[in-house]
């Protein structure tokens, strides 16, 4: 359904409609985020009797709940509202799978490296924010992220393209011959964050290797465009040049973590500012975020409709890890948050969010998890530009106005806000890790076997089962329904 005008929502719903947010006020941002979060949770039933924790209803793919939990951990982090914490914990722990690596057997038919990666990044965020730890007999956030990192490292494939991760984990899933930026971006982002969190250089080395590989085949070019992926059957010689917000965000945030880990190296600083400069040209229209590859043509699918949520989150986190980016990022966050809120004027409640934020306040008539999650992502991310005393770290600061020098001005400082700085295992992080989690666990998943399994025979036997197709990143993903 699509409603094609700009007067309808205001006329029909009156002046109480929409989520108005004053991005200079932490109270206003909290209230706006709370409204958007409530709307998002109306799509989730995993906490209801008889439902499966951690699953959004079909046709949502499994990964999207991981993305939603990531967004809800940020929600708690930025607003302090604990309403959804137990539902998030329950869902994440339910989906870890028997090997404690986010590979539940039920999801084998759709799970790619990126799908697993989104759940792992949610776990990593939980560790970095000291999200309440699971009971000791349950998998722990940090160890879950390490398990996925270790498995991805074991899947690094040098048989084609000089390296890289394939999109898919399993040869029988469509896309096994595609090496893409999001799968490799998940690995890069996890490596960068694990390096910063644990101080273990091995993680940083892997992250560097991923970046170098992406650059070597042209998936990241010298202008910091980040392209979708390439087919490995032709040795990645031809690139799918679609650009998505989440690819820019995942590399930006990973680079910001390595910039921070290396205590401000020029190498990673240049990469952070390079991606940021290019992103602000490609993914913003008059200061408002846009998923330009599909939004202009009104053909974003269910997955793509959620990408702006993650881009928002990673932009916000980048300002914390590389504070000199705040002067560029803060205005983009505030103008996008205002615009996103204004078009959240659909539905009976007058606060349902559509997808297009560039409409000049008009609700575009669409609803969904992605729409709602993207709006929540940008609204809560605006919190990072509120000046807060605790933001300066290290040593005793004389004054209390040093704060966030990158703020766009006019905001009142909120001394009650925490610094939002992600913790590490030497600065208060409490999540228990396991450097050898994942494949090396007794009875753990045998990843090597998959790397060498021949694809076509298995694919043939699965393809008889009935297929639902959906486009992610310009390529086809198949869901085999049994
Ligand atoms: C599930 O979570 C939603 C959102 O917090 C809440 O409104 C609902 O009451 C919960 N349902 C159950 C059965 O706990
Ligand atoms: C897997 O599917 C079965 C059957 O529908 C269900 O009982 C179980 O809870 C599911 N487990 C997960 C982790 O989704
Ligand atoms: C495939 O690409 C890699 C990386 O660019 C290159 O090193 C390798 O020589 C290529 N292989 C073939 C067979 O062209
Ligand atoms: C932090 O993690 C590293 C790498 O796993 C480990 O060597 C170190 O002992 C940890 N430090 C603390 C304080 O737990
Ligand atoms: C690393 O992150 C911390 C926490 O946000 C910040 O205070 C510090 O300035 C950052 N380091 C660099 C080199 O920017
Ligand atoms: C660092 O990480 C690597 C890769 O996971 C692991 O093999 C190694 O044991 C870790 N070192 C420490 C000190 O934890």
Summary keywords:
two-stranded antiparallel ribbon, mainly alpha, 482 residues, three-stranded antiparallel sheet, binds 2-acetamido-2-deoxy-beta-D-glucopyranose, single chain, disordered C terminus, disordered N terminus
What compounds are bound to the protein?
2-acetamido-2-deoxy-beta-D-glucopyranose
Number of strands: 7
Q: How much is the average pLDDT?
A: 87
The general outline is globular
Count the DSSP helices. 16
How would you classify the helix and strand content by structural class?
A: mainly alpha
Strand content: under 5%
From the alpha-carbon coordinates, what is the Rg to the nearest angstrom?
21 Å
Note the main sheet: 3 strands, antiparallel
The amount of helix comes to 40-55%
The largest sheet has its strands arranged as: 1-2-3
The residue ranges in which pLDDT falls below 50 over 5 or more consecutive positions are 1-15, 392-408, 443-482
N/C terminus separation: 30 Å
In short:
The protein has 482 residues and is mainly α.
Give your account of this protein's structure.
The chain is mainly α. 44% of the residues lie in helices and 5% in strands. The chain is built from 16 helices and 7 strands. The strands form 3 sheets. A 3-stranded antiparallel sheet has the order 1-2-3. A hairpin with a 2-residue loop joins β6 and β7. α3 packs antiparallel against α4, α6 (141-155) packs across α7 (181-198) and α9 (245-261) runs antiparallel to α10 (266-282). The longest helix has 18 residues, at 62-79. It is globular. The chain starts with 7 loop residues before the first helix and ends with a strand. The relative contact order is 0.16. The model is unreliable at 1-15, 392-408 and 443-482 (pLDDT under 50). One 2-acetamido-2-deoxy-beta-D-glucopyranose binds next to loops. Residues 395-409 have a biased composition (Gly residues).
């Amino acid at each position: 359904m699509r409603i094609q005008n700009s007067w309808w929502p205001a006329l029909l719903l009156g002046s109480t409609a929409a989520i108005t947010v004053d991005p200079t006020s932490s109270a206003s941002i909290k209230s706006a985020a709370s409204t958007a979060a409530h709307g998002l949770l109306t799509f989730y039933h995993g906490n209801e009797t008889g439902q499966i924790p951690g699953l959004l209803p079909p046709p949502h793919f499994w990964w999207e709940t991981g993305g939603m939990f990531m967004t809800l951990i940020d929600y708690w982090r930025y607003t302090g509202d604990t309403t959804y914490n137990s539902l998030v914990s329950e869902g994440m722990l339910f989906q870890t799978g028997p090997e404690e690596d986010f590979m539940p057997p039920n999801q084998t038919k759709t799970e790619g490296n990126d799908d697993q990666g989104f759940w792992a990044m949610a776990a990593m965020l939980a560790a970095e924010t000291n999200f309440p730890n699971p009971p000791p007999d349950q998998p722990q956030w940090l160890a879950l992220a390490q398990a996925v990192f270790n498995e991805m490292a074991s899947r690094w494939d040098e048989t084609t393209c000089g390296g890289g991760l394939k999109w898919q984990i399993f040869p029988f899933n469509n896309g096994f011959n595609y090496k893409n930026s999001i799968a490799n971006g998940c690995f890069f982002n996890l490596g960068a964050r694990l390096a910063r969190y644990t101080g273990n250089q091995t993680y940083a080395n892997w992250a560097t290797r991923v970046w170098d590989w992406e650059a070597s085949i042209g998936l990241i070019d010298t202008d910091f465009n980040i392209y979708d992926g390439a087919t490995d059957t032709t040795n990645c010689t031809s690139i799918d040049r679609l650009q998505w917000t989440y690819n820019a965000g995942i590399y930006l945030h990973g680079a910001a973590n390595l910039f921070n880990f290396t205590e401000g190296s020029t190498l990673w600083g240049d990469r952070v500012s390079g991606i940021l400069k290019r992103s602000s040209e490609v993914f913003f229209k008059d200061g408002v975020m846009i998923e330009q590859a599909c939004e202009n043509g009104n053909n974003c699918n269910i997955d793509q409709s959620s990408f702006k949520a993650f881009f928002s989150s990673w932009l916000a986190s980048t300002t914390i890890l590389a504070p000199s980016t705040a002067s560029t990022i803060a205005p983009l966050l505030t103008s996008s948050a205002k615009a996103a809120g204004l078009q959240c004027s659909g539905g009976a409640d007058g606060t349902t969010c559509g997808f297009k934020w560039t409409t000049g306040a008009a609700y575009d008539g669409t609803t969904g998890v992605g729409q709602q999650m993207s709006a929540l992502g940008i609204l809560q991310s605006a919190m990072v530009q509120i000046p807060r005393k605790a933001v300066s770290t290290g040593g005793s600061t004389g004054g209390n106005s040093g704060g966030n020098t990158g703020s766009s001005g006019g905001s009142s400082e909120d001394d009650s806000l925490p610094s939002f700085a992600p913790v590490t295992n030497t600065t208060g992080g409490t999540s228990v890790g396991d450097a050898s989690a994942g494949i090396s666990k007794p009875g753990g998943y045998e990843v090597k076997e998959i790397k060498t399994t021949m694809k076509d025979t298995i694919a043939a036997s699965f393809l008889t089962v009935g297929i639902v197709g959906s486009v992610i990143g310009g390529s086809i993903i198949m869901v085999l329904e049994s």
